[in-house]
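Input sequence (617 aa), recorded before submission:
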Amino acid sequence: MRSIFGWICVIIMVPIFLFSGFIAGKESKAVKGLGTVLDEKIPIESVELPQNSFIFDHDGQLISEISSQQQNRMYIKYSDIPEVVKTIYIESEDKRFFEHIGFDAAGMLRAVFINAKSQSIEQGGSTITQQLARNIYLSFEQTYNRKLSELLYSYQLEKNFTKEQIFEGYLNAIYFGNGTYGIGTAATHYFNRQIQELHLAELVFISAIPNNPTLYDPIKNFDNTKDRQERLLNLLYQNDTITKQELEDALKYPITLSIKDRVDTQADYVTYVHQELKQLISESEGYTQKLADAQNKEVIEKQLTERVNKVLSQGIIIHTALESTIQKKLVNAIDQHLPSNQVQGAAAVIDHHSHKIVALSGGKDYEKYSFNRAFQAFRQPGSAIKPLLDYAPYIDITGATAKSKIDAGAFCKNEYCPENYSEKNYGMVSLETALKYSYNTAAVRMLDEIGLNKGFSYLQPFGFSSITKDDYNNLAVAIGGFQYGVSPLELTSAYTSFGNNGLYYENHTIFKVTDLTGKTLYEWNDTPVRVWKESTNEEMRKLLAAVVKSGTGQKASVSSTYVGGKTGTSNDYKDLWFVGLTDTYTAGIWVGKDKGGNVSNIYNQGPQMLIWRDVMK
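Predicted structure, token format:
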């Protein structure tokens, strides 16, 4: 009886409150009217529901669905919702929906007395508008304060939106069990078809769920859902919505669930897409500059994260450059050539003509959002850095060619005395010979001759993120001895300049982001940078080709009009690299152990080259 009394108090107080506010607003200009107060305290300008976003590959195939705020929802317009569905909810939830102002005092009283008579909750007193208010703005706690707030929010919704807009919001907001929100999503989740494709029996079946998503869970409690479906079908017949024949056909129609799992593939690539989306929004909306200027970067970083989440919750389509065939080949090659669980690998493949990242491997047996070695692992590049830091700058500055001579003999400076891999000295050799056999002393001499600062100036356009001031004072960087190192994606991106006549373009996974109607919201607008002269690039391509044809990179050889690249091995065999390019693609492969262990036992096999070959052939 106490519960019933509380309900009656709420029902009585609301109209008194509304009437008093209205009179007070008219009687005195000094006292704000109820409408003004509600507009200030409960401003409702739009009905926003989080909905799914989507990531597509290069061919327009869906590779990942993103459910914002853990709500799997695909919004559907009012005009696209079948009339019979609208009728079901009007008849079963709120018969006076198109007449009331957001709440139905008579309906609430009726529910109170029916529930009191049965001593149970047989009927709810909430209108469709109240249920929408509760779903979007309020909690589901059973208190009278919440109930009063619900009525006030409902009043505001009715004041600011049409009945159709409210009904549309409601049918997209309600919960259909199993993480599914909205009638359109329920159709695809339970039957794997669009709502317009469903049979009358199926439409009514899913419409039965929201009344009690646990009791009427189609997967766990199918019979309960079927029983309520039949009751709703009879309700439609009694109200002349459907004919007797339609009723009989629907009752006989077999309900066969076809659960649609959320698409979530290509974990390696998709993980980086999320990272790049954040970068794209940051660049486009000024957060990058704010971060550069801010003293408290954490505040700006938090704002950026919130902005990205908001964009995703509004429903977007992220169009990417993923070439799924290459991605599959890459993952398979890493699995095949790295059979040991102790050894890991990472890789990037870029179409250097379109400047798109077409495949990424974050590691063997990679799991989504885990540590992605392709862009988060910074390792010593070994000799793979020589073309970028030593050879290209040296040729660009001195005008040397592939046939020019360089001393590959002993070298010592300030107690730094590097050795060639064979521990032999070779005297004067051509640049081609020095690179294809990866003579260390020749590379160090080149960087020493042009100067560390000058050499590093050629790396600046590539944006290597972990190069430090200490690296600028360490001649060992000539052969890959950095303080932290580079990521596979960074190194591969830098090598794309050899495929673009010495120009460097930023490389991306995302080529545009649109809303669900196809309107472009974000896209990269990069300007290429000339790193070295075209003549320098021609000589470098000769050198890189020699490495694969007759040097340390022969295991990477594939049939192509052009193929060139460079191997790299760090001290104590902790890192194995091969980075190279064909006519169209540039790819970089790293092999090693996460904690920097020795991998000399697989060095002679050249797994990094075998992976590269299998992907590129």
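Checked by second reader. The CA atoms of residues 444 and 478 lie 5 Å apart.
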